[in-house]
Design goal:
Layout: H1 3-30, H2 32-53, H3 57-61, H4 64-85, H5 91-98, H6 101-113, H7 119-136, H8 145-171, H9 177-199, H10 219-247, H11 249-252, H12 259-271, H13 277-293, H14 296-307
Transmembrane segments: 36-54, 66-86, 92-113, 120-137, 149-166, 178-200, 220-240, 252-271, 277-297
Membrane topology: Multi-pass membrane protein
Main location: membrane
């Protein structure tokens, strides 16, 4: 990848690492449905003017069926899943679980397009699973059946991300990144906005003050929702689909290598979350498994052998 691609990946990782901070701040107060709906709606306020400026609306309309499916896979399901998981798990742990997306991506690629999985890739998938087990065994944060359910939700969300990436590459590659981003988020908005508005804020029962109407939602929660919508969704999605166009789905998904670093950092700085040794160990195991399953580590070793 070029230095420009690497810089884009670093900024994108910082933004998506921040999304778990904002999720942790907002979801317990207003609920996962409201967070997902506000996230897509706020991002669209940023993206639709750009679509109209570049005159891409008509081209986007011709791909409506595929954009609806992509919006479900890339936005609705993972946003709801991570939003619910954020009511139980800390931001750092959520960002680590998010790093399993490339593992799912390798598995989906094998099942969908019959991409070859050699011994190193299979070992990487097994190693990634071992990292998840290590995290799930950490009683510091995963200490109940509810927390284990939240871990399962987060993993299901990353599986949905992986399917969406391959779906986009196969069926929407002719669309510009701006159209793909806006189309997916627009489809998600159609599915989420009305139910979220009718249901109102859905705070967890443990909160001392539970807002019952939108006017009672605290300002800090609105600020978290705004950051999640504009920075972590609108700007980040546009950056990601441009990166996807330049470097392909497998390399683009390696941005998840850096997200746990920022997720743990932001959670530690702003929410006083504890970073445990099992979190660090689980991160290392998952990332090593990801490198193996995507052929990065084995390829580099092979090149060194041939040039030695």
């Amino acid at each position: 990848m070029t230095p420009r691609d690497l810089l884009s990946m670093l900024v994108l990782a910082a933004l998506w690492g921040g999304s778990f901070l904002f999720l942790r701040m907002a979801s317990p107060v207003v609920g996962p449905l409201a967070v997902a709906a506000f996230r897509v709606a706020g991002a669209l306020l940023l993206l639709w003017p750009l679509v109209l400026w570049h005159r891409q609306a008509r081209q986007m309309a011709r791909h409506t069926p595929m954009l609806l499916l992509s919006g479900l896979l890339a936005c609705v399901l993972p946003f709801l899943g991570f939003g619910q998981a954020a009511r139980e798990l800390p931001a750092g742990l959520l960002s680590i679980l998010n790093a399993t997306a490339p593992l799912w991506g390798a598995l989906v690629g094998w099942l969908w397009t019959r991409e070859r999985l050699g011994p190193a890739a299979l070992a990487g998938l097994a190693m990634g699973l071992a990292g998840v087990v290590l995290l799930a065994a950490d009683r510091t944060h995963v200490d109940s059946a509810v927390a284990h359910g939240a871990v399962a939700l987060a993993l299901g969300s990353t599986l949905s991300y992986a399917i969406a990436i391959h779906h986009t590459k196969h069926y929407l590659s002719s669309l510009p990144p701006l159209s793909v981003s806006t189309g997916c988020l627009s489809a998600a908005a159609l599915m989420l906005l009305l139910p979220a508005w009718l249901s109102g804020p859905q705070a967890v029962a443990s909160l001392p003050v539970r807002p019952e109407t939108w006017s009672e939602v605290p300002h800090i929660t609105w600020a978290a929702l705004l950051g999640l919508a504009v920075l972590c969704t609108g700007v980040a999605y546009l950056m990601f689909y441009r990166l996807l166009e330049r470097v392909g789905p497998t390399r683009a998904m390696t941005v998840t290598f850096l997200i746990p670093v920022f997720g743990m950092l932001w959670g530690w700085l702003f929410l006083d979350e504890e970073i445990t040794w099992s979190m660090l160990g689980g991160t290392a195991v998952i990332l090593l498994g990801t490198l193996l399953s995507n052929g990065v580590l084995s390829t580099r070793l092979f090149i060194k052998e041939r040039t030695a």
